[in-house]
């Protein structure tokens, strides 16, 4: 509260008020004058001129500094960042695949991993495997990566963007001739746009008004946030193409932000990230690793120079790839080079210093435009990843200088815009990508290349902006994705958008290799492939094959040899020390995958790994292994330093890694281009050239091709993008799969591009594709196919059907199948009828031909997706045009949304599956919450979670998500979400807007909306209902810190100077609860003794000992003081100090410390019995706190050498913040029973026994069967022991205490209450074994402890009444 001003005269107050009013009034007038003087002269966007722009056109994506702070002062307040849920947007709680303990206060939904990725496999040359993603939470569910920007959100407004309001309405409102969709009736040889398009005729005044209106809306939004006390940081503002702001604020404010007038939706800002492309078998990502090296071990530096000149052998054409696509012919016949075409590359930047890219940046350079949105500066260089440089090389590299390689990209004269949006760790927030797209548009780019892809639907922000850009005439080319091995429904965003050109991949016809020869027979060649396209700097080297039968560690047997190693089939968990390899091995020939296709090196090698490394064509790998087995002294000659291009037997095959469609709306994506085994540019500091594969490589090939076509046809205006797509798709050529059968349209689209035919276009066909939907929603009547003859003479055309193989992407009819488990059938084909199969079209005529496609008839549980091509052959010149078609042969609403009955399923906190007909009890605290493990077999437009009551009636909606992708499992692990017990979408740790449901029986219902159905109809949903969930909430924090503990703690501290050894006694059953004394005694030599080991699980002792040794280099002793077990080890430890240094230690003083009731006094008596053969020296008892103070005298426990002991009171933690941990302490007797609820303790004990599968209480107390209801058990116990009240009622409290004491005495077996698995111990030592965490006290608690030590009277009062902190008495 602010200090009050006392005694100020009234007139002074009035003067001050008037002065404030006058200042505000003058300020308002000045603002209005300045505002209108500015806006009367220039459009609004000039007012927000981007200071980083180096040209005159302003960016409509304004990058604002964090100027708006509604809190009184945040200058010194650090931003609060915590691990967010994996969410995308929408109107309720997140469905989590994040750990159960994460705090979720969000209304945002959908955290099914949307791993938007680069569509190539190559990491940064300097990137280690750990660089790939942010640190994950340390929890059993921590395999899931964080893919969202912390506390960053898009806010979308109802007001349309400026171009949505004016530009598009003006340009897209004209009618189109029936039948002509996706294209226009234009003369392809004309440089003018169709007359059906109109030029932009919007006045600058209208644009200004629009910008003013949107800017005012944003300011009003910020003002509302300010009024509500919400601090924000503005990341970016968009008003031109989309009306969105991206801002940062704390997640707990989501409800408030969503409620502000004008806000349409909120969506998380997510990260794009680089991951390896998917192939038939996973890559070997970490088989060769850096391990700790002995200091005496020498490591010879090998000189494998990555920038050595690349020289292709005579007769080898480095640009042979252009023969495959017709690019070579188009350039020869039409002289096309992409001249003056501007291409924007949104990527990791471009190494513009590369000679093949012009060697400079800025005006007059080939890389003329650009910006670094990562570092917010003008230098868009590619300084760490190399991906963007490789992409740019494919588009338009030109290394035809005398000393160059002769390499040329598709369009070697294009002008580049380099927009760096990806960080060196491979991540790019998608609002940065949006800003890059906006900037590319502002810079006047004709084409935008997006070699990145992510999960989602066409409604994603990047897809939406891509569609808008395409409608403006900018050609947007995007990668379709690299998840071909994951099955159907894998087309990615933004390629999945309606108007972007989506690109799949085919394999290159030639491989870039180097040759080694068998010395004794040079006719035997070994073709090896290096990442940086350089030969091994070796001469003659012998060959050795690594044995895959065992994991060998001694590499000296391979000294000075080429090591041939099958990394894909090494023994599980076998890793190879890079230092050992580098010390002995001269080079490595590896097989990284079980794929039959040749692959270039993709293994993420350790930093400083300098051994030459290459992959082999699989057939040659096995040939070399056989030769080495036959000839033990086999030697290879590496003297040939030429680079060769050899035929690839899989050339033109659709790349297995290319993602499969269809889209969730059953749309067909566009076409294919070379993307497998592509040789292109790389940053100079990493060698200048490299090999890469992925749709990231096929996408720029199409981008370069589009540049050639724009140059040839001169398409302009809003329909330019549609026309480029049309000429590319019409002339694409259907290609084959690895089985040499025509590949499905779902994977190849319209087929492989043919740029010569697209450039020579004389015929156009509309529509460019036929998405036939399913049997319920499709149109299977006669439909027109429009053929336009743009030539000067009549043309004759023949129409025919080319059916291709149908695919079933589901296992057992319910679960989405990986590629290996997909079914293929070339007999399940559509029937295509032509009203006329031969037609003549006059010059300039647009003629319709009626066709009818009937889906194949299928039965049973098969899920067949059929496809094919309508072939239109021009009889005049023999050129084939194609129109792809695809559909689903049944009703798509019958597709399984979830793989029932396998998934979903309910898990306990220990990740054990709860059977469908069983029930599970949860305390709803910490980890102990119900977890649902689920898989989506099919994308869904709407996913929701409802909480049901005992009768399975809906109580409330808990969470929902819109536009959810099919699940892509990581190493076969399904996704997760959990219920935290709230009756809304606020978590337990949020503000109190939502309540916790009472104890009871509940069910979780997961519902997925089937494709193409009405959500209002019950039959449109596929539902799963969980087994019974029984909840009991234990949130009572037990606090017990009697006065004798405070006094004892103070005296312990004072006497430490006389103590030589600390013996810390712990209870073996609760390994992780430590006392306040650790903070004081941490600098003394210490022995940890786990007492009462006879009551804990015996098989955990070795694990605990090993963990203490590994993480703390601390020895641990397990004892049972009552039986003198292992106690002699403690005495011997103390005695050895005196024996080793008798002058320093004439006697040894040992202090025994520990929490209450861990058996310290029993331990002392046991040591005395063993050492001096005498009886009790310390008082013992069954109650905690028996030892009331530090002993005034010492206790001798050994004569020679002399060892004394000091007993201490059990020191309790002043405040245990975790109620469940409090229960464990109480259950083991560490806290007086009356301070906790005996019945709750008994209930917890019953839950633990059931959890352990111990139902011995059933027979003991004559129950009909196991129960999880404590009030069914306690009366039975009361009856058994005769615990009755005066009037015959059962004494439940006495029954509960009997039940608890039976456990404490070991009557129910030996159980450890803490998680002492290797994982649990690792988490404890890395996260929780910090005295500051466990014994941290609030200021109030600290004051109370000091008061307790200072005042005897207060001590006595607290001793009688109990000491309760937080909820209790003050």
From TrEMBL:
The active site is at 347 (charge relay system), 387 (charge relay system), 696 (charge relay system). GO terms for biological process: mitochondrial translation; proteolysis. Pfam families: fn3_5, MMR_HSR1, Peptidase_S8. One of its GO terms (molecular function) is GTPase activity. Residues 338-750 form the Peptidase S8/S53 domain. One of its GO terms (cellular component) is membrane. It comes from the Eukaryota. Residues 771-885 form the C5a peptidase/Subtilisin-like protease SBT2-like Fn3-like domain. Residues 114-133 have a biased composition (Polar residues). Keywords: GTP-binding, Hydrolase, Membrane, Nucleotide-binding, Protease, Serine protease, Signal, Transmembrane, Transmembrane helix. The keyword tRNA-binding does not apply. Residues 1150-1213 form the G domain. The chain crosses the membrane at residues 20-39. Residues 78-100, 112-139 are annotated as: Disordered. Belongs to the peptidase S8 family. This is 1299_t:CDS:1. It comes from Acaulospora morrowiae.
């Amino acid at each position: 509260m602010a200090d009050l001003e006392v005694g100020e005269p009234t007139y002074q107050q009035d003067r001050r008020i008037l002065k404030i009013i006058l200042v505000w009034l003058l300020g308002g007038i000045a603002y209005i004058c300045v505002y209108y003087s500015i806006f009367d002269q220039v459009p609004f966007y000039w007012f927000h001129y981007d200071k980083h722009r180096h040209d005159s056109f302003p960016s409509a994506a304004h990058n604002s500094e964090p100027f708006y702070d509604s809190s009184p002062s945040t200058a010194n307040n650090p931003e609060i960042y915590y691990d967010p849920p994996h969410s995308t947007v929408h109107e309720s709680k997140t469905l989590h695949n994040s750990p159960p303990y994460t705090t979720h206060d969000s209304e945002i939904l959908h955290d099914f991993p949307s791993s938007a990725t680069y569509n190539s496999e190559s990491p940064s040359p300097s990137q280690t495997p750990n660089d790939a993603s942010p640190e994950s939470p340390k929890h059993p569910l921590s395999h899931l990566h964080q893919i969202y920007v912390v506390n960053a959100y898009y806010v979308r407004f109802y007001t349309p963007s400026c171009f949505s309001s004016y530009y598009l309405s003006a340009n897209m409102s004209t009618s189109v001739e029936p039948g002509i969709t996706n294209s226009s009736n234009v003369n392809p040889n004309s440089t003018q746009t169709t007359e059906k398009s109109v030029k932009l005729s919007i006045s600058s005044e209208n644009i200004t008004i629009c910008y003013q209106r949107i800017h005012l809306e944003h300011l009003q939004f910020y003002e509302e946030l300010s009024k509500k006390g919400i601090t924000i940081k503005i990341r970016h503002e968009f008003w031109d193409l989309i009306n969105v702001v991206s801002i940062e604020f704390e997640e707990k404010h989501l409800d408030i932000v969503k409620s502000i007038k004008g806000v349409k939706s909120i969506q998380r800002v997510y990260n794009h990230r680089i991951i390896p492309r998917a192939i038939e078998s996973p890559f070997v990502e970490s088989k060769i690793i850096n391990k700790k090296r002995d200091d005496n071990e020498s490591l010879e530096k090998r000189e494998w120079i990555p920038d050595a000149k690349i020289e292709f052998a005579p007769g080898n054409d480095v640009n042979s790839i252009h023969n495959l696509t017709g690019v070579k012919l188009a350039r020869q016949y039409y002289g096309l080079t992409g001249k003056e075409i501007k291409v924007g590359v949104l990527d990791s930047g471009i190494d513009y210093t590369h000679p093949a890219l012009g060697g400079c940046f800025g005006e007059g350079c080939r890389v003329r435009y650009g910006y670094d949105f990562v570092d917010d500066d003008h230098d868009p260089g590619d300084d760490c990843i190399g991906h963007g440089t490789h992409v740019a090389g494919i588009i338009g590299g030109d290394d035809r200088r005398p000393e160059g390689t002769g390499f040329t990209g598709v369009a070697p004269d294009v002008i580049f815009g380099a927009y760096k949006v990806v960080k060196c760790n491979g991540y790019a927030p998608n609002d940065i990508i949006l800003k890059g797209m906006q900037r590319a548009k502002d810079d006047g780019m004709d084409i935008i290349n997006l070699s990145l892809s992510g999960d989602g639907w066409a409604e994603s922000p990047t897809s939406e902006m891509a569609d808008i850009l395409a409608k403006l005439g900018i050609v947007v080319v995007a990668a379709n994705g690299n998840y071909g091995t994951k099955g159907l429904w894998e087309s990615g965003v933004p390629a999945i958008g309606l108007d972007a050109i989506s690109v799949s991949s085919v394999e290159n016809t030639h491989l870039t290799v180097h040759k080694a020869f068998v010395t004794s027979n040079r006719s035997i060649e070994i073709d090896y492939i290096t990442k940086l396209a350089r030969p091994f700097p070796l001469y003659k080297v012998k060959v050795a094959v690594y044995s895959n039968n065992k994991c060998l560690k001694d590499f000296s047997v391979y000294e000075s040899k080429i090591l041939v190693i099958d990394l894909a089939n090494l023994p599980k968990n076998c890793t190879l020390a890079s230092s050992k390899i580098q010390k002995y091995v001269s080079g490595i020939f590896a097989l990284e995958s079980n794929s039959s296709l040749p692959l270039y090196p993709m293994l993420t090698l350790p930093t400083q790994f300098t051994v030459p490394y290459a992959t082999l064509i699989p057939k040659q790998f096995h040939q070399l292994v056989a030769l080495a087995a036959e000839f033990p002294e086999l030697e290879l000659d590496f003297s040939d330093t030429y680079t060769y291009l050899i035929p690839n037997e899989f050339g033109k095959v659709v790349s297995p890694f290319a993602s499969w469609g269809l889209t969730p709306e059953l749309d067909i994506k566009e076409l294919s281009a070379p993307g497998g085994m592509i040789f292109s540019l790389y940053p100079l500091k990493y060698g200048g050239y490299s090999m890469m594969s992925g749709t990231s490589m096929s996408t720029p090939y199409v981008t370069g091709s589009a540049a050639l076509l724009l140059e040839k046809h001169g398409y302009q205006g809003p329909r330019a993008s549609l026309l480029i797509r049309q000429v590319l798709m019409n002339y694409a050529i259907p290609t084959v799969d690895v089985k040499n059968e025509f590949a499905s349209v779902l994977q190849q689209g319209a087929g492989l591009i043919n740029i010569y035919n697209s450039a020579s276009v004389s015929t156009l066909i509309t529509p460019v594709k036929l998405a036939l939907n399913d049997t319920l929603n499709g149109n299977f009547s006669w439909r027109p196919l429009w053929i336009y003859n743009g030539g000067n003479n009549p043309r004759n055309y023949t129409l025919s059907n080319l059916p291709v193989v149908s695919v079933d992407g589901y296992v057992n009819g319910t679960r989405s199948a990986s590629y290996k488990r997909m079914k293929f059938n070339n007999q399940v084909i559509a029937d295509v009828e032509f009203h006329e199969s031969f037609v003549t079209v006059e010059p300039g005529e647009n003629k319709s031909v009626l066709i009818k496609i009937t889906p194949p008839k299928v039965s049973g549980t098969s899920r067949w997706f059929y496809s094919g091509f309508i072939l239109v052959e021009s009889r005049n010149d023999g050129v084939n045009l194609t129109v792809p078609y695809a559909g689903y042969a049944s009703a798509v609403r019958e597709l399984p949304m979830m793989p029932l009955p396998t998934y979903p399923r309910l898990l306990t906190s220990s990740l054990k599956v709860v059977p469908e007909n069983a029930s599970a009890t949860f305390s709803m605290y910490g980890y102990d919450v119900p977890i649902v493990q689920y898989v989506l077999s099919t994308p869904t437009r709407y996913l929701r979670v409802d909480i049901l009551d005992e009768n399975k009636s809906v109580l409330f909606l808990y969470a929902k998500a819109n536009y959810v992708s099919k699940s892509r499992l990581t190493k076969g692990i399904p996704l997760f979400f959990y219920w935290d017990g709230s009756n809304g979408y606020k978590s337990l740790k949020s503000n109190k807007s939502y309540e916790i449901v009472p104890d009871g029986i509940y069910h979780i219902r997961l519902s997925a909306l089937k494709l193409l159905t009405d959500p209002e109809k019950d039959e449109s949903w596929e539902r799963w209902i969980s087994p019974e969930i029984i909840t009991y909430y234990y949130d009572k924090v037990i606090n017990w810190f009697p006065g004798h503990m405070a006094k004892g703690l103070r005296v312990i501290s004072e006497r430490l100077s006389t103590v030589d050894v600390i013996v810390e006694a712990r209870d073996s059953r609760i390994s992780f609860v430590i006392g306040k004394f650790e903070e004081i005694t941490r600098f003394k030599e210490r022995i940890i003794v786990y007492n009462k080991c006879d009551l804990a699980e015996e098989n955990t002792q070795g694990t605990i000992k090993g963990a203490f040794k590994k993480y703390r280099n601390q020895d641990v002793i397990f004892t049972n003081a009552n039986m003198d077990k292992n106690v002699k080890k403690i005495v011997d430890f103390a005695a050895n100090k005196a024996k080793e240094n008798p002058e320093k230690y004439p006697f040894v003083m040992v202090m025994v410390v520990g929490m209450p009731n861990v058996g310290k006094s029993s331990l002392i008596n046991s040591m005395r019995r063993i050492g001096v053969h005498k009886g009790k020296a310390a008082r013992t008892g069954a109650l905690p706190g028996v030892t009331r103070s530090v002993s005034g005298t010492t206790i001798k426990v050994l004569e020679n050498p002399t060892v004394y002991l000091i007993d201490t009171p059990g020191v309790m933690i002043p405040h245990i913040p975790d109620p469940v941990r409090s229960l464990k302490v109480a259950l083991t007797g560490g806290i007086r029973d009356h301070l906790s609820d005996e019945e709750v303790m008994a209930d917890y004990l019953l839950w633990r026994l059931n959890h352990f599968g111990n139902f011995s209480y059933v027979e003991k107390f004559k129950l009909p069967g196991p129960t999880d209801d404590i009030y069914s058990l306690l009366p039975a116990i009361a009856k058994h022991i005769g615990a009755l009240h005066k009037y015959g009622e059962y004494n439940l409290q006495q029954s509960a205490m009997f039940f608890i004491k039976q456990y404490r005495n070991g009557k129910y077996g030996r159980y450890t209450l803490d998680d002492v698995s290797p994982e649990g111990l690792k988490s404890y030592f890395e996260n929780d074994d910090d005295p500051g965490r466990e014994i941290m006290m609030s200021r109030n608690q600290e004051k109370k402890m000091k008061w307790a030590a200072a005042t005897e009277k207060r001590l006595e009062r607290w001793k009688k009444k109990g000491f309760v902190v937080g909820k209790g008495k003050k």
